Amino acid sequence: MDPLFSRLILALYYFFLGSLALYGVHRLAMVALYYRTRAGSIPRPPEPESWPRVTVQLPLYNELYVATRLVDAVCDLDYPQDRLEIQVLDDSTDKTREIVEQRVAHQRSLGVDIHHLHRRDRRGFKAGALEAGSRRARGQLLAVFDADFVPRPDFLRRTVPYFVDPEIGMVQARWDHLNRAYSLLTRVQSIFLDGHFVIEHAARNRAGLFFNFNGTAGIWRREAIAKAGGWQHDTLTEDLDLSYRAQLAGWKFLFLPQVTVPAELPVDVNAFKRQQFRWAKGSIQTARKLLGEILCSPFGWWVKLEALIHLTCNAAYLLMVGLSLLVFPAMLLRADTDWPLLLLVDLPLFLTASVSVLVFYVVSQIGAGRSWGQGLRYLVPLMGLGIGLAVNNARAVLEGLVHKGGVFERTPKYRIEQSGDGWRGKGYRVPRDLSVLIEGVLAVCFVLCFGLAWVLDMWPSLFFLYLFLHGYTYVFLLSVMPART
Fold first, then answer.
1. Helix (H, G, I), strand (E, B) or coil at 143
2. Does 339 have pLDDT greater than 60?
3. Which pLDDT does position 343 carry in this prediction?
4. What's the rounded mean pLDDT across residues 249-269?
5. Both 417 and 456 in a single domain?
6. Residue range of the domain that includes 67
7. 251 and 398 together in one domain
8. Known active-site residue 239
């Protein structure tokens, strides 16, 4: 091979691996910040003498299987009835509309102040529905729950008192999981989300960094939404966009890890990939939209740097795809490299990129009150799923770099709460896309690479290659045989 081309491959390989190692350093920094700020929790304020009026907003679109579960759960909220209003913001085009109409009528007959607001078009998608509902809402505070969530009766009584501080613009609860134990896929998803909420949200909030409303299981001060410019739909993550605009406008956010709201995790990997695609694309769109304003703001350099990493972290999937393409050629080129050089350069980069995952998710399980063994037991599936999502999410990042907005494709829910619940014959199935073909090709390539490395006695490379083989093969097989999830 031409020496210049060989050097180019190795340079790109080390760039991708080194950049991923930097994201690993950031992950470890979040863990350190989490531990350093653990004593910074805000004490719960006393209940107000006069409870503020709250409007609970339920944005729905074709949620045939879970709409009644959500409506009934919200109607059971323990809050003064004369201070509670419920809006079902329904953009549905199927039988969900009729089901919701009947359930709302039933709850109204029981004395609940609940309204069914149906739009004939999805202009602005979820952001448009929330904006339309807010114009008719009577509440000073606006609570939002997506269709897959089931808030507990005490949710409002545990969160509303914090708004006694007039500077608080939003309070976010922690997500819990109704069907964590349903399958390997849901177990791994739950650990992914625990890392985000238990570690990242807590560390960012306690350290005075930007953090975001997650689109559901939170409450906004209506004034904060208005002064931040309202709900906008030029990104696919309207929640992330509004969160940063509100904090740039001076509003404080609060995360309450002790308040949890259970939700249903996607059981179909294609639905999960759709959800991840939307989040990845929307975060990059938000970065394009707001990073200039953030970097020019009067916040400290550490706050700005962390916001930059937060909004662009999905770019790591592009790096992962690049590393996937170059890892085996780079290993062949360095087959005769001295061991000391590999130990000094490759091993630290690999350990930083991989061990940080172990530390991050083990700590998240401890912080969530579960066994540290949960993170350790699922380490390989965690890393494998993260690698397997690389093609799907890298495509989302590329789209987010060049396109504003887009179609908000919601994640289907099937009311899966325990192991015996089935979903195979239900509607809303997500079709496979081009990513599946690329994942299949990469899976085959890594099977061949792993076999060749074995034949050539490239023993130090086998575990690294296995992670890629496992990730792409697992996601590909689940995508083409979703009933095996």
1. strand
2. no
3. 58
4. 95
5. yes
6. 53-195+211-264
7. no
8. yes
